[in-house]
Amino acid sequence: MSSSTPFCQAAEHKCRPHGRQGLRGVVTSVSMHDPPRLQAAAAPAGVALSAGRLLHLIRSESGVTRAQLLARTGMSRTTLTERLEQLTAARLIRESRSTDPTGGRPAKIIEFDAADKVVLTIDLGHTHARVAAVSIAGVPLAATEIAVKGRSPSELVLAALIKAAEEVLQRCPGWEVVGIGFGVPAPVVQEGQTHWDSSPMRGWSERLISDTLQGRWPVPLVLENDARALAIGEDSLMSSAESGVDILLAVKFGWGIGAGVVMDGHPLRGSTGAAGDIGHTRVTRDGPRCRCGRRGCLAAYASGRAILRQLRHRRVTSLSDVVTLLDRKDPEVTATVRRAGEAIGHVLGGLLACINPSVVVLGGLLGHHPLVVRSVRAEVKSSTLPRMIERTSIQPSRLGEDAGTIGMARLVVRSLYSPEAVDSRLKLLTE
Ligand SMILES: [Zn+2]
């Protein structure tokens, strides 16, 4: 039914030359700003803001005047001018003249300078990697996919990713790469202590990734778990479109099963970076053996890999084939995927009782299929008390294949333009 995927080759280039207009219509409500908790800390009373904190304030507005900044910060005119000059010299802000509609004197509008800056994102999955260029505003400009195999040497995979990234960036002439986001199917903590050996990416290391990618593009690099990046991407829609959403749980259901939790806009990583790693939740003491070596893990029953194993006699060899057969209402494939959705719903039931999220997003190649959404909803409903889920919406991903891409870009933008990062970059420039 399907040909096998070549080893680390750009087998299926689904090039999407969006151009600068790109997917703008799909993602216009994405918020790339830091969550409110950080913004509230931007202006301590009576203290002149650093240039980084001033930029933070400017980024949270769609455009402000000097008079407005003076009034909001309480800074002296001299200090404000000095800070603005620093930020302008570093191409972080720009001024444009606006016309006063009342006929008064035109005032200069100060705004974040996002022009022609692009984040390179790599969303590495078990069988495919999606490489994209995303504007600072969170709009994917160009993207491609390459086939990868988890057991390929990491150097070969990285070389293929760089080649794909160069092709993507060629479609964005004139745009400057300012950061790289790399999503991986492994537990990630912020300070570079990824548990590679317990993930499908055995043999990888942060050092290898950073040396290779930053050797080609010497810009800041952010590493994150792929399901968590998906959750952050989906949260960027929720936080701007649906007020009151404070906890979002997203599940990535494709070749593997992982989840990400975002609370008040901040990803939950856990003590070892493994928060959301639900694939290895044991649903029974016996049962099929999981790739982690134990028996009875959720992933051993319900992951895309397990589904393909169960459908081997049908010569179904890819998740795209599974989706095609689901859409044709094939009885055996439907029953297999429904059981998987129910198993995921069962595990989510326990999780929902703990964190009581407002929204559960189902993403990944299989996760957003209507059958999976229905199965998960039904199982969650039957395995939890009504009051636990009465305000929880279980819904398919709205960003689809762009969710991880946009989530990674959002993380990179946050990291690049945090007050501390900006202040330290400006300090380096003046030394
Ligand atoms: Zn396992």
Write the layout of secondary structure elements.
Layout: H1 24-27, H2 36-40, H3 51-59, H4 66-73, H5 77-89, E1 93-97, E2 108-112, E3 117-124, E4 128-135, E5 140-147, H6 154-170, E6 176-184, H7 206-216, E7 221-225, H8 226-241, E8 247-253, E9 257-263, E10 266-267, H9 298-302, H10 304-310, H11 319-327, H12 331-355, E11 359-363, H13 370-383, H14 386-389, E12 393-396, H15 403-416, H16 419-430
Parallel strand pairs: 3-6, 6-7, 8-11, 11-12
Antiparallel strand pairs: 1-2, 3-4, 4-5, 8-9, 9-10
Helix pairs in contact: 3-5, 3-16, 6-7, 8-15, 12-13
Question: What tags apply to this protein structure?
Answer:
alpha/beta; binds zinc ion; Arc Repressor Mutant, subunit A; 40% helix; 12 strands; 17% strand; Nucleotidyltransferase, domain 5; five-stranded mixed beta sheet; 431 residues; globular
